[in-house]
Amino acid sequence: MIDSSRRRDCGDKATTDSTKARLQALTPGDGVTAASAFFIAPYAGEYAEEAEVVFGADGRVGYRDERPEDRSVEGVLLSRWSGTQTGPQRWGEHHARRQFHVMEAPLGCAGCAGPPHRDERGILWILHTSGMRLTGHLMGPVLVTTPPLCLRDASKAMRGCDVLQGGAVALRVTEAEVVGVRGMVYSPTETPEPGIVRFDDPRIRRVVADGLVREISHAEVDTTTLPILTDCSTPVGSRAGEARSAAH
Ligand SMILES: [Zn+2]
Questions:
Q1: Quick one: which H or E segment has residue 103?
Q2: Are 154 and 229 in contact, with CB atoms under 8 Å apart?
Q3: Ligand 1 centroid to 41 CA: how many Å?
Q4: How far apart are CA 171 and CA 136, in angstroms?
Q5: How confident is the model at residue 135, as a pLDDT?
Q6: What pLDDT score does 181 carry?
Q7: Which pairing describes strands 207-221 and 168-185: parallel, antiparallel, or unpaired?
Q8: How many A from CA of 38 to the centre of ligand 1?
Q9: For the chain, which terminal residue's Cβ has fewer other Cβ atoms within 10 angstroms, N or C?
Q10: Cα 146 to ligand 1 centre (Å)
Q11: Would the pLDDT of 4 be above 50?
């Protein structure tokens, strides 16, 4: 069952944080390092369990020793994780349970699970540019498993994540509905395959999910924030203030 209250866009959750204050609080070296903890990145001591997946009489997948916490509120089977938060973090990956936590409503920042940054253009999302067509506005919907970010963690991600360093774009998002999950899709006859499955797809009963998927359907490209986040030569607060002023 899908809880409709969670399938809403970003526009219903106005954050109360002061953009100006948060920008001024963000300065290079102020805890903004790749070594700092990042909420959704798995630690070396954490791993996805290889729990046995079985088909029920109703054709739905489950674990042989399934527990209530093994399913999302939508009833989707979740990947099981074990281990401890020790050792370095794997920046290019998502811990499945923590990814769900911040991608559900209300949206949380990928780095701290607090409110993501919002200004008059929308919520801040930083994505790898692979395969994306951008012309000031988004050209068509984009499915994302990457959560939005606050300013401090956006800066941290830009410096710590190899994937983003390969090419990143900042978006200001006003609509990003929860539409499905990413995970391994099981079949009674075939080898499991990774995929993205929407909630209205019958395969949703045969997936072990490791991430919640939102569809960004309304966004504009933010050309002012990204240069500030990646520029280590000047205090971020002053540069951010200049850029925001210039945008008006
Ligand atoms: Zn954050």
A1: helix 96-103
A2: yes
A3: 13
A4: 10
A5: 64
A6: 97
A7: antiparallel
A8: 8
A9: C
A10: 13
A11: no
